[in-house]
Design a protein that fits this description.
Serine Threonine Protein Phosphatase 5, Tetratricopeptide repeat, two-stranded antiparallel sheet, 21 helices, elongated
C-alpha cells in the first residue's frame, strides 16, 4: 500500500511500480489540465518571461559580469534599481530591475518559483491578464522598495512573483476559478506557506522585503478584480465550465479599470516618492553613485582608505587615494575624500587644490564646498572661505555644521555679530550639540563685554 501525496489516502500499488498519487487523483489532475488548456489554450507568457530573464542574465555573464557575485556597478549598468537614478533621470529602472538578477542562485530560485506559479496562474488568469498583473505588481514592488530603501541597489523578479502569488490567493480565495476542492485547498495552502515563509525569511536582512510586500498587495488587489474563470456550480470534480460571455465581459472590464487605476496610482506614488526623496541624488547618494562607477579594485582601495582615515592612519590612506585618483581622474568623490585626508594631514594647500578639482567635477557637492571652506579658513583666506560656506548653504540650508563653520570664518575675520548669528542657527538646528552651545555662550559673553 502507498499513501497518495495529494489526497493522503492509501491505495494499492504493485511492489515493482513506484507511484505517489492514487488513480483517482491522477484522473482528476488529467481532467483538470484538460480544462485548463480549454480556458487558456496557449501557454506562452510564463515561458517568455523566464526566457527573457535568462537571456538578460546570460548576456550579462557573457559581458564579463560575475556569475556568482555581480558587482554593484555592473548591476547598475544593466538596469538594477537605485534611488538616485530611479527617482532621477532613469525612472525606467522600476521596470528593468525586474529582469536583472544578483547571481546564478538568485535567478535559478526566482525562475523556479515563477515557473511553478506561472504554469497554473497563467491558465487560470488568461495570458494578457497574467502579464498585466505580473508587470504592474512587479513595478509596484520596485517603487515600494525605492521608497523604503532609496540608497540600496535592488534587482530581481521576486516582487512580480509575489504579485502572482497574491493574485492567485485572491483568485482562489474568492472562488473565481473552480478547481477540484482538494486541489484548490492544497494550492491555496501552498501559496500561503510560500508567502509566509519567504516574508519571515526576508526579515533576516539582505532581502528586499519591501518589494515582496508591495508586489503581494498589488497582486492581491488586481486578483480581486480578475474575470471569473469557471462556474461556481461545477457539476463534477475537476470540471471547469466555460464562463458566460456577458459575465466574463463585465468582469474583464472591471479588471481593466482596476489595472488602469493601479497604473495611475503607481504614477502618483512615483511622484510622491520622488518628492519625499528629491528628484535625484542627495549629496551623499551622489558620492555613492560616483564610487559605484569606479572599478571594483579602486572601490576597495577607497573603502580601505576611509577606514584608515577614521583610524588616524592618514599617510597610507593618502597613498591609496592618490593611486585611485590616477585611475579615475574624473571622480569627484575620490578628489573630495582625498581633500579630507589632506586636511587631516594639515596640508591645506594640497587640500585646496584637490577640493577645487572635486567641485569643478561636481559643483553641487555641498560637502566639498564645506571642506574647501575649512581648508581656506586654515590658510587665512577668510573671504573665499565665507563664499564657499554660502555656496554650501544654498545647496543645503539646514546643515548645522556648515552654519557653524561659517560662524568660525566670520569670527576670525572679525565679524562677531555675524558669527554669533550663524552659530545660533547651528545650535537651533541641532539643540543637543554641546559644542555649538559652548561657542554661542562664549560669543554672547564677548559681545556683552
Amino acid at each position: 500500500m502507498a499513501k497518495c501525496t495529494s489526497c493522503r489516502k492509501e491505495f494499492a500499488v504493485p511492489f515493482w511500480k513506484f507511484a505517489t498519487i492514487c488513480p483517482e487523483c491522477r484522473s482528476t489532475q488529467a481532467e483538470l489540465q484538460t480544462k485548463l488548456n480549454q480556458l487558456t489554450p496557449v501557454f506562452i507568457v510564463t515561458p517568455c518571461l523566464v526566457g527573457l530573464n535568462a537571456l538578460v542574465f546570460c548576456i550579462m555573464v557573457a559581458a564579463g559580469v560575475s556569475i556568482m557575485e555581480p558587482d554593484l556597478a555592473d548591476l547598475i549598468h544593466w538596469g538594477a534599481g537605485f534611488g538616485p537614478l530611479t527617482l532621477g533621470p532613469q525612472p525606467w529602472r522600476a521596470v528593468t530591475s525586474e529582469f536583472v538578477h544578483i547571481g546564478i542562485i538568485h535567478i535559478l530560485f526566482n525562475m523556479w518559483c515563477l515557473w511553478s506559479l506561472g504554469k497554473l496562474a497563467e491558465r487560470l488568469m488568461g495570458n494578457w491578464n497574467f502579464l498585466i498583473l505580473y508587470l504592474l505588481s512587479g513595478t509596484c514592488g520596485s517603487l515600494v522598495s525605492v521608497w523604503r530603501h532609496p540608497q540600496l541597489v535592488t534587482a530581481g523578479a521576486s516582487g512580480a512573483i509575489f504579485g502572482v502569488a497574491g493574485g492567485m490567493i485572491a483568485l482562489l480565495g474568492m472562488k473565481k476559478a473552480q478547481i477540484p476542492g482538494t486541489a484548490m485547498k492544497q494550492t491555496l495552502k501552498s501559496l500561503l506557506i510560500f508567502v509566509g515563509y519567504n516574508l519571515l525569511y526576508g526579515m533576516r536582512g539582505g532581502i528586499d522585503n519591501a518589494a515582496h510586500v508591495g508586489g503581494l498587495l498589488s497582486g492581491a488587489l488586481l486578483g480581486a478584480f480578475l474575470p471569473r474563470r469557471g462556474s461556481e456550480a461545477a457539476t463534477a470534480p475537476g470540471v471547469i465550465t466555460p464562463p458566460e460571455t456577458s459575465s466574463e465581459s463585465q468582469d474583464f472590464s472591471k479588471f481593466q479599470v482596476a489595472a488602469g487605476a493601479l497604473a495611475c496610482l503607481l504614477l502618483g506614488g512615483f511622484g510622491y516618492v520622488r518628492h519625499v526623496h528629491g528628484p535625484g541624488a542627495t549629496p551623499q547618494e551622489a558620492v555613492e553613485l560616483d564610487l559605484f562607477r569606479l572599478r571594483k579594485e579602486d572601490r576597495v582601495n577607497v573603502s580601505e582608505a576611509a577606514k584608515q582615515l577614521r583610524a588616524g592612519q592618514v599617510d597610507p590612506a593618502i597613498e591609496k587615494l592618490k593611486k585611485v585618483s590616477v585611475n579615475a581622474p574624473d571622480s569627484s568623490a575620490v578628489q573630495s575624500i582625498l581633500g579630507e585626508a589632506y586636511i587631516q594631514k594639515k596640508q591645506y594647500d594640497a587640500a585646496i587644490q584637490v577640493l577645487r578639482r572635486a567641485i569643478a567635477l561636481n559643483p553641487n557637492d555641498s560637502t566639498a564646498h564645506v571642506d574647501l571652506g575649512a581648508a581656506l579658513v586654515e590658510s587665512r583666506q577668510y573671504d573665499q572661505a565665507i563664499d564657499e560656506f554660502h555656496t554650501a548653504l544654498r545647496l543645503d540650508s539646514r546643515n548645522a555644521d556648515t552654519h557653524s563653520n561659517l560662524g568660525v570664518a566670520l569670527e576670525r575675520k572679525g565679524d562677531a555679530k555675524g558669527a554669533l548669528e550663524e552659530i545660533g542657527t547651528a545650535s537651533t538646528l541641532e539643540p543637543g550639540n554641546a559644542t555649538f552651545k559652548k561657542n554661542y555662550k562664549r560669543l554672547s559673553q564677548q559681545m556683552k563685554n
